[in-house]
Amino acid sequence: MPPRAKTKATKRPAHAVPPDDLRWRCDPQSLSFTSTEEVQPVTGVVGQETAAEALRFGLQTTAPGQHIFVRGPIGSGRLTLVRRLVETLRLSCPEVRDRCYVHNFNQPDRPRLIVLPRGQGTVFRRQVDRLADFIREDLPTALESEGVRYLKRSVEQVSNKRLKELVDPFEKELEEAGLKLVSVEAGPVVQASIFPVVEGRPVSPEEFDELHARGEISDDDHRRLHEALERFHPRLVEISEKVNVIRREYEEAIDGIVEEAARAVLAKLVEEIEQAFPQPAVKTFLDELIEDVVKYRLGPREDDRDFTRLYRVNVVLEHGPGDGCPVIVENSPTVRNLRGTIDYDFKMGEEPFPSHMGIRAGSLLRADGGFLILEDRDLLSEPGAWRVLVRTLRTGRLEIAPPDSPFAAFGPTLKPEPIDINLKVILLGDDETYAILDAFDHDFPQLFKVLADFNTTIPRDEASVEQYAAVVAHIVREEKLPHFDRSAVAELVEHGARIAARQGKLTARFGRLADIVREAAFVAGESGNKQVTGADVREAVRRGKQRADLPARQFRELVREGMIQLDVTGSAVGQINGLAVLRAGPMVYGFPSRITATIGPGTAGVINIEREAALSGAIHTKGFYILGGLLRYLLRTDHPLAFDASVAFEQSYGGIDGDSASGAEICCLLSALTDIPLRQDVAMTGAIDQVGHIMPVGAVNEKIEGFYDTCRDLGMTGTQGVIIPRANAGDLMLRHDMLEDCRAGRFTVYAVESVHEALEILTGRPAGRRRADGSYPVHSVLGVALRRARLY
Question: Which of 501, 516, 548 is the last residue of a domain?
Answer without folding.
Answer: 548
